[in-house]
Design a protein that fits this description.
The protein contains eight helices and two strands; from the N terminus they run H-H-E-E-H-H-H-H-H-H. It is an all-alpha fold and 224 residues long. It has a two-stranded antiparallel sheet with strand order 1-2. Strand 1 and strand 2 form a beta hairpin.
């Protein structure tokens, strides 16, 4: 096998990582649940718009970095066969992670523990990422570099999502409807979708709306 072929293989692994995060609607919704309140703060019972873009952005970078560190740990460990968890458990926890983070928008309870919650759930998201590489049965001699390329692709895809969504939310934050419509109903919608997936994945059943949802997502290039 030539060096150019090997290099092309690693590039394809990077592309796979990007496509996976972009196609994985559950991972995207988890990021959305983290980003929605990032442009606001709640000193007491009312959400207020953040004034400083840089300060809000740094907070987002910190949270996303924690998520990245967590899922990199388990992605690496699972791919290198150090540890594994049942797919049913992993996918169920990924689903419910969206609801738990979204619940914090409606009634903040994490406070200074958000980083810990994100880290814990990030570990399970990493197992989810690892399941993609497992399907490719990569030879051991190429596994480490393929892992690095795939993980780099995931991070690029993740950064692209944040780079698009965060500025839009920051521009919207002063709209009066943001704290009511966007935050309240956005969080409620995320919780409903999350619980739906949790029931399906936990009980291994197909609820009636599942086929419709998969068909709609499939038509726009997403999957769960």
């Amino acid at each position: 096998m030539s060096d150019s072929t090997i290099t092309q293989g690693y590039i394809e692994m990077g592309k796979l990582g990007i496509h996976h995060i972009w196609e994985g609607i559950d991972h995207i919704l988890f990021l959305i649940a983290l980003l929605l309140p990032s442009v606001m703060y709640r000193p007491e019972k009312q959400w207020l718009a953040r004034e400083d873009f840089y300060a809000a952005f740094i907070q987002v970078v910190k949270i996303i970095t924690i998520f990245t560190i967590a899922h990199t740990i388990t992605l690496s460990a699972a791919t290198l066969n150090v540890v594994s968890l049942p797919s049913r458990l992993v996918e169920s926890i990924i689903a419910i992670s969206i609801a738990i983070v979204a619940c914090d928008i409606l009634k903040p309870f994490m406070k200074q523990r958000l980083w810990l919650i994100v880290f814990i759930f990030g570990l399970f998201h990493g197992f989810g990422f690892a399941s993609v590489l497992a399907d490719y049965q990569i030879p051991d001699s190429f596994k480490t570099m393929s892992l690095l390329a795939f993980n780099l692709g995931v991070e690029i895809g993740q950064i692209a999502i944040v780079a698009v969504v965060f500025p839009v939310l920051f521009m919207m934050r002063r709209i009066q409807a943001y704290s009511t419509l966007v935050l309240k109903y956005g969080a409620t919608g995320l919780i409903c979708v999350s619980l739906y997936w949790f029931i399906e994945r936990g009980l291994l059943i197909d609820l009636p709306a599942g086929a419709i949802l998969n068909w709609l997502l499939g038509n726009i290039g997403l999957k769960v």
